[in-house]
Design brief:
Length: 363
């Protein structure tokens, strides 16, 4: 075994994880590559060509790279546990009138746990991924901070990773810009790899059409939920919608109702099969309850502290006060935020450091 140790690298077949694996290999780590098969489009009823981390081409690309550098590569089929947990949760959340974030759930409960389990089996001291973020140790805690390339920073989706798993995690790309990683791939002779397009879709939702996906997973859903009402906050009926699971808080486009002025989804009420609409100003809120939280930088937050709180992945964030209250985090925003969607992640930052995060709740 290498003096630096053995590391299990999650290889999706894309440029980021491939360069991460080669980088660690060239630094002298004993690298073992692993590609996780989480999903196949055939099970979704899609006729689209498979793309992204779950495709056969991507698995073959990862294996070919490992072979060319002389380190082992394995395929780990986790479709059953992925489907039972991530996809079932995805469907259940929409049916409950919430907007889920499956990538966070997958990282927290599936990918990291699967990697650690297989790392133990292969006597790997560390695991590594191609996420753009950094990890350091401070005050006996592993702290995640933003990647150098803020346009690619992925710390937002890592808020749920436990301290135990972070203590064995390496993120080699955190100190680089995406352009540098692509150049490294070219310098490695992997021109095609550097030119690969990136997918920003949810891996198991073909063509990013979550409505069609829900209809496929729940036969007859559209007929069951069609005909409910669009209403104002005072209960005034505006018209009929196509089914409450097919809308998200903050949505403006695709409502297919003409009211003479822009209207937005303010709330979704599954028990009444109603979708509440209102003007842009009615979307604004100044507080949030965040449940299922995980703290990364601190063990607890028993007195209020300042935080830049992001309520979506691409959100620039809003300064707020956060404090731990029993089994939830209370967030008081210093200025109104728009489109606070139950089910999405609220993620807390102190400078570049990730304080932690959780799931936005209705109450």
């Amino acid at each position: 075994m290498s003096k630096l140790g053995r590391v299990l690298v999650a290889m999706s077949g894309g440029v980021d994880s491939s360069v991460a694996a080669v980088m660690l290999h060239e630094q002298g780590y004993e690298v073992i590559g692993i590609t996780m098969k989480t999903w196949d489009y055939a099970s979704s009823g899609s006729s689209s060509k498979e793309t992204g981390c779950c495709s056969l081409d991507s698995i073959n690309d990862a294996r070919a790279l490992a072979v060319s550098y002389g380190f082992p590569h394995y395929i780990l089929d986790i479709r059953e546990e992925f489907g039972n947990f991530v996809i079932d949760n995805f469907v259940e959340e929409y049916l409950a009138g919430r907007t889920p974030n499956p990538c966070v759930l997958c990282n927290t409960h599936i990918k990291w746990e699967a990697l650690i389990k297989r790392a133990n089996h292969l006597d790997c001291e560390f695991i590594a991924t191609g996420h753009y973020a950094n990890i350091r140790e401070e005050n006996n805690r592993k702290i995640i901070s933003k990647g150098k390339d803020e346009s690619k920073d992925q710390s937002y989706v890592l808020w749920g990773v436990s301290q135990a798993n972070l203590s064995r995690t390496m993120l080699p790309l955190g100190k680089f810009h995406k352009s540098e990683i692509k150049q490294m791939a070219i310098d490695m002779g992997q021109v095609a790899l550097a030119a690969k397009s990136e997918s920003y879709e949810i891996c198991f939702v073909p063509d990013n059409d979550y409505r069609a996906f829900l209809n496929n997973k729940v036969p007859g859903l559209a007929q069951q939920v069609a005909g409910g009402n669009f209403v104002l906050q005072d209960g005034t009926v505006l018209g009929q919608h196509k089914g409450y699971p097919f809308y998200t808080v903050g949505q403006r486009k695709g409502l297919e109702i003409a009211l003479g002025e822009p209207m937005f989804v303010l709330d979704i009420q599954p028990d009444k099969n109603e979708v509440v609409l209102g003007k842009i100003g009615e979307l604004e809120k100044q507080e949030a309850i965040v449940r299922g939280f995980n703290l990364v930088k601190y063990e607890n937050i028993l007195i209020p502290i300042d935080s830049l709180t992001k309520i979506r992945y691409k959100d620039k964030g809003t300064m707020s006060s956060i404090v731990q209250e029993a089994d939830y985090m209370k967030v008081d925003f210093y200025s109104p935020v728009s489109g606070l969607a139950p089910g999405q992640s609220a993620v807390f930052y102190e400078g570049n450091d990730l304080i932690g995060g959780g799931i936005i709740s209705k109450q």
